[in-house]
Amino acid sequence: MSLRNVGIVYHKELIDSLRDRRTVISMIVVPLLLMPLLTIGMGALSLTLVDEARKEIPRVMILGGDDSPAVVAELEQLRDLRIVPAKPDFAEEISNKQIRAAVEIPEGFEAKLAAGESSAVTIYMYEGELKSGFGAGRLQRFFRELRDRTIREHLDARRLPDSLVHPFDIEEKNVAPPEKVGGAILGGLVPYFVILLCLTGAMYPAMDLTAGEKERGTMETILCSPVSRSHLVLGKFLMVLTASIATAVLTIASMAVSFGAGKKLLLGITHGAADAALQITITGKAMVSIFFVVLPLAVFFSAALLALSLFAKSFKEAQSYISPLMIIAVLPAVAALLPGVELNSTLALVPVLNTSLVSKEIITGTYNWDLIALIFLSSSVYAVVALAIAVKLFQREDVLFRT
Amino acid sequence: MIEAHHLVKRFRDKKRGTVCAVNGVSFSCRPGEIYGLLGANGAGKTTTLRMLATILAPSEGTAIVAGYDVVKDPQIVRSRVGFLSTATALYGRLSAQEMVEYFGRLHGLDESTLRRRIDEIFSRLEMNDFRDRRCDKLSTGMKQKVSIARTLVHDPSVMIFDEPTVGLDVMAARTIVGFIRECRNNGKTVVFSTHVMSEVEKLCDHIGIIHDGKLLAEGSLPDLRSRYGIQDLENLFVKVVEP
Q1: Residues in Cβ contact with B35 at an 8 Å cutoff, skipping those fewer than 6 apart
Q2: Cβ-Cβ contacts under 8 Å, A20 against chain B
Q3: Of B202, B195, B126, B129, nearest to B166 (Cα)?
Q4: Closest approach of chain A CAs to the CA of B91, in angstroms?
Q5: Spatial separation of the C-alpha atoms in residues A277 and B7, rounded to whole Å
Q6: pLDDT value at position A168?
Q7: Nearest alpha carbon to residue A312 among A397, A207, A236
Q8: How is chain B split into domains, by residue range?
Q9: Domain definitions of chain A by residue range
Q10: How many C-beta neighbours within 10 Å does residue A46 have?
Q11: pLDDT of A24-74, one tens digit each?
Q12: Which among A23, A328, B25, B110 could disulfide-bond with B7, CB atoms 3.0 to 4.6 Å apart, if both were Cys?
């Protein structure tokens, strides 16, 4: 009889919620649309912007160099740089993005080159600005080539071998599998979105099924039925959990598909020149594992949101309680994105952060089973406590009939 | 049968401290009778009826409703009571039939009994035209009928109505009044609260006048009239609450 009642309440809440446009949007539409939009849309946009920046011929200034006509002439002949007349306010022009970079050639540069004396060329740029970076990079390449050429000429004149200044090569080789490389770059974002949408998916139904019922006057109606209040709250909780899990599952699935599709699309845009960030692949095993570590967190969110919004008299009041919770819950998820934050047994006890960190590891193919078990356990404890509070609150007349 | 024994309900209020909304109310109502609780707003009518329907637990005292104690067996009491008030709204996104089915199932009816009960009630209340229409798309009168069907689906022996006609138009109010009378004729125990004197005159076999949480006068209408020597119910009511 008892489980039957929980089932009846759950079934009704499910039908009711699926007919509610706002629940359907937060539970189904957002995860299905947001992921492709974020991965493909944003990815394509940023790659297009980089591509555009590469296509632009940077305007650069040459400062000095009157006594080094050959170097200046060589620079002027470069097709991928546009030399503009020198001005004293070059720094300002770089800051205002009127020109991309400037290079200062010291006095007697060519003479010193010929004499084998050392001198310094200064490149001025806008740090962190993409197009300035490209301009400065091109200048640097030119002067590096000039330096190499000068060295070779000096060596040839003295009949000395190249290896004298180039005794050995240094080569860096990546041995980590592509999913780990991609995972380290984008891996933190995936759990962040899963956790965030897990929360937002549960948010609307939690408010609708409690404060919403109070506001619409159906709370008293349902309290007239012989179903016990614990069963009632459990039925409602299962519905909120369903919404949360559905959102999480749809997010993971949509993310996996988006990454797959996005990769192909972006490879097309960049003409095959994709970097490591695009090498991310979410394996089936990772998807299932993330689902299981997120599950107790979804229970925790659902129960906490239910308890909190049950306390509210109206939908609006519930919203004002839940908005701060959203920030509190998202902060640890964001913390997991920071470089250097690594999972350990202490952090495994911090709610949200633990799930976020372990999901990040799972995406990169690392399975630390001891920590995974600890996280599952600690999250489950938090979840049970939150659920117990929600059930307890539902027994209290001063909460149910708060006016 | 309803027997209320010294029902007391205290609330804690932030501004006013402890408030005694109902203070020692006792009365009884037999099957086939209508008991009317007459009182002004805030007199304690709703709280009393909510305690009888086990939506609220009494702070002191108890009541035996349909043979069960509201304090000891609230769930069994709820399964034998039909409670209707203007505060008991409908689930807007469910159809009329789904709404009634939901409550039938919560009352433990099996599917074939539920089907039979719903067909019976929907025909009797002439609800078949809108049985598949969503509750939020129904007129006030139709909504009232769905609420009535919801309270009747488990065939309760006790009916409790808390100001059932407040905010209703004449036609919808007539439906409710007719329904209350029908409940009595079918041998149900009926308690209802109101501040509308004409409803009391039309319906009630016994009246309790409640004021400030206390039951100040009780009896049949002719009884009360002869006791106070006043024919007009409104004047009688004023005489009782402001002696």
Answers
A1: B2, B27, B29, B190, B191, B192, B204, B205, B206, B207, B208
A2: 93
A3: B195
A4: 7
A5: 71
A6: 85
A7: A207
A8: 2-80+157-241, 89-155
A9: 2-46+178-400, 54-164
A10: 11
A11: 888 888 888 877 787 777 777 877 888 887 788 899 999 998 899 999 999
A12: B25
Residue window 38-57, chain B: list those with CB within 8 Å of chain A: 53, 55-57
A54-164 under CATH 2.60.40, yes or no: no
Average pLDDT over residues A356-383: 88
Look at A226 and B11 and tell me if their CB atoms are within 8 Å: no
Distance in Å, alpha carbon of A302 to nearest chain B alpha carbon: 22
pLDDT tens figures, B91-122: 999 999 999 999 999 999 999 999 999 999 99
Provide ipTM, 2 decimals. 0.90
B107 near A CB under 8 A:
yes
Q: Which residues does chain A have within 8 Å of residue B98's beta carbon, measured at their own beta carbons?
A: 12, 15
Higher pLDDT among residues A56 and A1, named by residue = A56
Chain B, nearest residue to A219 by Cα: B88
Output the average pLDDT for chain A. 85
Q: Could you tell me how many CB contacts below 8 A there are between chain A and chain B?
A: 63
Best mutation site among B105, B132, B155 for testing chain A: the one with the most A CBs within 10 Å?
Answer: B105
CATH code of domain B2-80+157-241: 3.40.50.300
Chain B closest CA to A368's CA: distance in Å?
46
In the predicted model, residues of chain B with pLDDT beneath 70 are none
**Is pLDDT of A130 > 90?**
no
Minimal-distance CA residue of chain B relative to A7? B106
pTM, rounded to two decimals: 0.81
Across chain B, mean pLDDT equals 92
